């Protein structure tokens, strides 16, 4: 019958009203037996597992190292060791922390013995200590240890009420007749102290450092209290200063409000009805702090009887406006319009000049293609003779008329219509010749266009060919470079592989040579009578070889290579022989045959040789492939280190 069954049996016997079906068994380290959502709150990963243990700072410590009773402090916790929870992750790593303490009634000094019957949300269960710790870890439940004969209870924890939105915001000070002051930020105050459980956890973690001097907790708490006291005094002082400045400001504002008045009865109704505001008058802002309203006795009378022609500027009045408010704006707009017009004119002239230049160039090209027209020899003389005859006749007629009549003649021989018709006919003839030559210069223009197009196509093809050749050369160079790099990389890999093979071969040869040397050396200790002197000699020789050897996968660590400080013969030595008593017997025996200084040096070297950190830094256990052998070597080395620690402390006085 296990302990929980025994507890349930006695509870049923002592409580006849509780039937066999009213009590349940709650054991194991699996959370969520009753509440399935408990696994999501406690486990970091779904497949993690929990285990529990007791934390004791004197674990793995010799009785000689236990603290003296005369050095015990009243603040030291002499109760049972604290419980810790260990979570093993799926990756193999482990996490741990302290299990929080449960709430206790007054005059309840501990959580009692387990397993026992408790009340979980109104139902009785026979609960083990592991399940009790699981509910203490769950923030959704509250664990309470009642004063006997009341049962220990587990109830749902009360949820904290949500914080008021005004608690973290800004505050404004309002007062009747006083304008709203500028909001000021609230000074951030530090949170309250953590619970006693957190302080206990910190204290327990600090106690884990056994080899160092533990500082006084009262001193650290005193320093923390002094620092918090200074911070609280600074906050109160700044708050008092703000309150004083606010009260002074409110008093000042109230006094100014009492002095602000305006008697509208001081001005007669006729004057108020006839007063018209000036055209250029602007609104003036009146604030309570800097610009109170004007009284009727002083400034109002001055404004009514002021001479605007002999106005003198004073320090408090406004300057007289000399120009219209919109004059500057209108002047700027006019300047901008003039600049835009000049810019537009320049643009138009530039466009027209370009257009005229293009037209002239086009006409020059057109006329360059047309063959020059040469008139017949009979045409020009006839036209010239005709003109000369006309001119001559006209002159003669004019002279005759002038001589005969003494004035110009109305019957002129020069026929203007005939001249105009002749000019039109000549123009038509030239246009007809140009029209007849149109196919020639159009064909010439087409040939020139085709020739230019062919030249452009040739130039484009040549440029395309050059780009193609350049890309081809670049691609070939890139492929050659890639091939060269690949070949170099392959050569480097091959050289590294050969070098690695050479290193492995050399390590295997060295390991084989060292193994043969160790076998030959171990044969010395196999034959002959065995004595403490030979045990000491064997320990020294094997220690030098052990310290100088670099163990690896090709030369792994083994049990017969480690210089175990025991008096047993090598042929009969096994892992079970390496224990605390054997190590102490070895060093107590060889101490009689050695000088004190030599013995002290030997103990110090041995303590460093078997220290777990030294083995971890050398990676000795990583070279062992067999997991069982690795575990045995680790346990034996830890045992030797723990046995050497008291001897080393006695010699060094640490």
Automatic annotation (TrEMBL):
Domain of life: Eukaryota
Chain residue ranges for the region called Disordered: 232-357, 375-421, 466-526
Regions of compositional bias (Basic and acidic residues) in chain numbering: 241-259, 386-395, 466-522
UniProt feature, compositional bias: Polar residues: 271-280
Protein's name in the database: Uncharacterized protein
């Amino acid at each position: 019958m296990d302990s929980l069954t025994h507890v349930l049996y006695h509870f049923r016997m002592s409580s006849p009203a509780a039937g066999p079906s009213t009590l349940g068994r709650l054991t194991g380290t699996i959370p969520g037996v009753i509440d399935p959502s408990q696994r999501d709150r406690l486990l970091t990963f779904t497949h993690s597992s929990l285990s529990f243990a007791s934390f004791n700072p004197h674990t793995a410590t010799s009785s000689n190292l236990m603290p003296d009773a005369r050095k015990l402090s009243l603040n030291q916790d002499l109760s049972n060791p604290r419980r810790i929870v260990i979570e093993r992750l799926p990756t193999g790593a482990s996490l741990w922390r302290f299990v929080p303490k449960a709430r206790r009634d007054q005059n309840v000094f501990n959580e009692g013995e387990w397993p026992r019957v408790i009340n979980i949300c109104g139902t009785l269960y026979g609960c083990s200590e592991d399940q009790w710790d699981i509910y203490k870890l769950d923030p959704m439940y509250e664990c309470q240890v009642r004063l006997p004969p009341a049962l220990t209870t587990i109830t749902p924890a009360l949820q904290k009420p949500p914080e008021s939105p005004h608690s973290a915001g800004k505050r404004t000070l309002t007062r009747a007749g006083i304008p709203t002051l500028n909001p000021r930020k609230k000074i951030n105050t530090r949170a309250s102290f953590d619970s006693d459980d957190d302080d206990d956890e910190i204290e327990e973690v600090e106690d884990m450092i056994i080899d160092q001097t533990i500082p006084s907790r009262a001193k650290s708490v005193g320093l923390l209290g002094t620092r918090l006291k200074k911070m609280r005094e600074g906050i109160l002082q700044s708050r008092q200063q703000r309150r004083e400045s606010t009260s002074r400001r409110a008093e000042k504002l109230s006094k100014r409000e009492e002095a602000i008045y305006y008697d509208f009865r001081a001005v007669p109704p006729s004057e108020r009805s006839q007063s018209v505001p000036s055209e250029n008058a602007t609104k003036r802002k009146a604030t309570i702090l800097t610009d109170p309203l004007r009284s009727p006795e002083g400034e109002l009378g001055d404004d009514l009887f002021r001479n605007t022609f002999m106005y003198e500027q004073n320090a408090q009045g406004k300057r007289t406006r000399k120009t219209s408010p919109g004059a500057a704006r209108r002047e700027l707009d006019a300047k901008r319009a003039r600049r835009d017009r000049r810019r537009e004119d320049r643009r138009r002239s530039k466009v027209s000049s370009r257009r005229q230049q293009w037209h002239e160039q086009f006409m020059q090209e057109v006329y360059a293609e047309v063959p020059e027209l040469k008139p017949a020899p009979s045409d020009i003389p006839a036209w010239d003779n005709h003109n000369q005859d006309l001119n001559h006749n006209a002159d003669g007629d004019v002279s005759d008329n002038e001589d005969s009549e003494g004035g110009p003649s109305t019957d002129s021989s020069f026929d203007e219509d005939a001249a105009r018709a002749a000019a039109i006919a000549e123009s038509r003839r030239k246009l007809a010749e140009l029209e007849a030559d149109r196919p020639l210069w159009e064909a010439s223009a087409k040939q020139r266009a085709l020739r230019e197009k062919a030249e452009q196509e040739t130039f484009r093809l040549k440029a395309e060919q050059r780009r193609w050749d350049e890309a081809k050369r670049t691609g070939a160079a890139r492929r050659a470079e890639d091939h060269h790099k690949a070949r170099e990389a392959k050569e480097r890999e091959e050289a590294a592989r050969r070098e690695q093979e050479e290193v492995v071969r050399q390590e295997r040869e060295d390991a084989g040579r060292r193994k043969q040397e160790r076998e030959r050396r171990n044969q010395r200790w196999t034959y002959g009578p065995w004595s403490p002197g030979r045990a000491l000699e064997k320990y020294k020789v094997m220690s030098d070889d052990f310290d100088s050897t670099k163990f690896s996968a090709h030369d792994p660590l083994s049990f017969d290579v480690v210089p175990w400080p025991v008096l047993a013969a090598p042929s009969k030595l096994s892992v079970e022989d390496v224990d605390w008593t054997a190590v102490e017997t070895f060093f107590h025996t060889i101490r009689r045959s050695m000088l004190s200084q030599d013995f002290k040096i030997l103990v110090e070297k041995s303590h460093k040789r078997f220290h777990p950190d030294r083995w971890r830094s050398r990676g000795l256990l990583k070279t062992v492939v067999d997991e069982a052998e690795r575990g045995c070597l680790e346990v034996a080395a830890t045992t030797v280190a723990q046995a050497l620690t008291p001897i080393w402390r006695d010699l060094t006085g640490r």
